[in-house]
Predict the structure.
Amino acid sequence: MSHPLLKHTSALAEALLQFYARQRRDLPWRKTQDPYRIWVSEVMLQQTQVQTALPYYERFIERLPTVEALARAPLDRVLKLWEGLGYYARARNLHKAAQIVVRDYDGRLPSERAALLKLPGVGRYTAGAILSIAFGQDEPALDANARRVLCRLFALRQDLRKPATEKLLENYCRQLIPKNRAGEFNQALMDLGATICLPKGPTCLLCPLRSFCIARRRGVQNELPVTAPKRTKPHYEVAVGVIWRENKIFIARRPDHGLLGGLWEFPGGKRQGDEPLERTLMREIAEETGMRVHRVRPLTVIEHGYSHFSVTLHVFECRHLRHAPKSLRPWRWVALARLKDFALPAANQRIVELLREKYQKRQRAATIS
């Protein structure tokens, strides 16, 4: 599909690449051509800001420096390294894909688009990033920043979330990419969107593409891109139990699939109607574990949001009364000090921190008395 702006392809690409040569961000995954390390970085950067991902990337590569090391690692270890980064399906898919690469491709990430797209967790953007940055192929790689830049550049009013819009932008990008320079071009678009062509208040006077940008020419850069209104997120009341047996706490491992898959957690579940929260707690514990508890005491209330819903966690401490756990999921009785060895969801980590503070204060008070 042609567009009048594409008549200026060479000049536009040159302006963008000059900007990248002067102002490219200094990032560790840009100092390597190792496809594995580039792949890990791109997976981490899905739905995560660069500054947030940086320490996770460096720690992950230090502990699991090769695709073989990742494939051999237990999933629990991978999830622990990912703990706090969120969207844990990324880590599970990365681990599963590494095992496939070792088994089917002799430990070398495939350099064919079709093969990459068959790997768990690899979509159009990730495949394009790997092919262009690691293998030097002239493929587009459009993250949210790059899509926003192109949307304003071409003054598109289509919803960015629609597949048809994504394909149109990919088509434009393919025509703009200078031969054999796709890796630099794609990263330049990303940097431009991350530093200048911002979601709100783009600094157009500093933009190397300002003379080409149709949205700026029309004065509509702040109106683009167009996105459909977000749906209201549902909200749930949840009761959670910190169950003590002597000096250890009960935790169970979530199934490997679905939300927070493979992480360890305190048992609990959703409140039904106007059910008293203590009854919710006891019902959920009995359903999940077969255990009975007593001496139930409120500990804290935590508000937490996920991508598609939010929760209010009503957290209780209680004591194991009788019946051994009968959960179908793996479970453990763990000392408070050892909970740090397990990958826990963010909200559960906040519970652990509160428990540590509480019992440290109690120990200090006992020492003073």
Observations:
- Residues 346-368 form the longest helix (23 residues).
- The beta strands are 235-245, 248-253, 264-265, 268-270, 292-305, 310-322, 331-335.
- The mean pLDDT is 93.
- The first strand starts at residue 235 and ends at 245.
